[in-house]
Amino acid sequence: MDSVPDAVFLDDDAIVLPSGLRVIGSTLWSHVPDDEIDNYSQQLAAAGLTGVDNIRLDGHPLTVRDTNELHGQARSFLARQPAAARSSGCAGTRTRHTR
């Protein structure tokens, strides 16, 4: 992010711009049903990946179980945002999903 002046990375965080617009950001990982975790993990290994997309989390490869936990945390954060917006005087919410 250092290469983009004044850029802000929002991961389960929100900011209010000088115009009063409240912007929220979250990485909403896919949720894999428990009975499919082993299958997905095997597919990742067969593709030559160490964990999910070769990402490391706290020193270990990011697992599908990790992404499920991150998914839950993000959903929880997002569920709290309408009340947070109302308490900060925001009149509405707009969402954007990027794949």
Rounded mean pLDDT is 86
List low-pLDDT spans: none
Overall outline: elongated
Number of domains in the coordinates?
1
Strand runs, count: 4
Question: Major sheet: order of its strands?
Answer: 1-2
- Give the radius of gyration: 17 Å
User: What level of helicity do the residues show?
Assistant: 25-40%
The main β sheet shows up as: 2 strands, antiparallel
Number of helices: 2
Strand content: 5-15%
Would you give an account of this structure?
This protein is an alpha+beta fold and 99 residues long. The protein has one domain (13-87). It has helices spanning 37-46, 64-87, and strands at residues 13-16, 22-25, 56-57, 60-61. The chain is elongated and about 50 Å long. The model has no long low-confidence stretch (mean pLDDT 86).
Structure, briefly:
The protein has 99 residues and is α+β, with helices and mostly antiparallel strands. The chain contains 2 helices and 4 strands, in the order ββαββα.
